[in-house]
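call fold(seq) -> tokens
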Amino acid sequence: MTAEQIAAASPRTSARIAGALYLVVIVAGGFAEIGVRSRLVVNGNAVATAQNILAHEQLFRWGFAADVMGVLCVVPLILLLFEIFKVIDRRMALLALFFSLIGTAIQATALLGHFAPLVLLKRGQTLGVSLELLQAQTYMALQLQGIGYAIGLAFFGGTMLSRGVLILHARFVPRFIGLLLVIEGVCYLVNSFANFVAPEIASTVLAVLMVSGLAEVVLCLWLLVMGVNEQRWKEQALSVAARS
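ret:
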């Protein structure tokens, strides 16, 4: 990036667009997980889960659509964040971008587990499959989606760690947000591996993760409301360009 390009750049506008996209991602993901799956999926009860899905089919479909919308918004979001934070350390910004891209791809693939129950329950019986088997398959599909999300969260943990380190070295965003993101990244990794190797404590770890997840809310709102300190961003960009 040349001095002329830096002078013409408007990182505050990019930051506010990123904040708006981030808000969509958070709201869409929260609605799908808390407003839909947590409401309809009955832990350990395949029959009740299947009955809930059929009784609230449209809500279940809206949950799927919300998750897809969130995934779509993540792609431009991570590109905007890369453009904002690459002036600190391009390699670290690329690391955050790649972690996020891989995590998003895994999350999108895992969404097949959300839609599978509708295919199984509404079409399975026409093929002569027993209702009891379809209910069990429905529940297992949702369980596999949860594992897919845990794998995705491991990569998002890498995203939060690398993005947090970037913000800790930034002059244009409060550094305490970087510290919160680093803590969240560690919690993401612990949560994922708890699901893999010690599922009996996963619910306890998840409670901690929910609290640490406020770090992204803080970053989202800061970008949306405050943007970035444009003068300091340009100063840091010029400093990095001069060293290069």
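The chain has one domain: 3-243.
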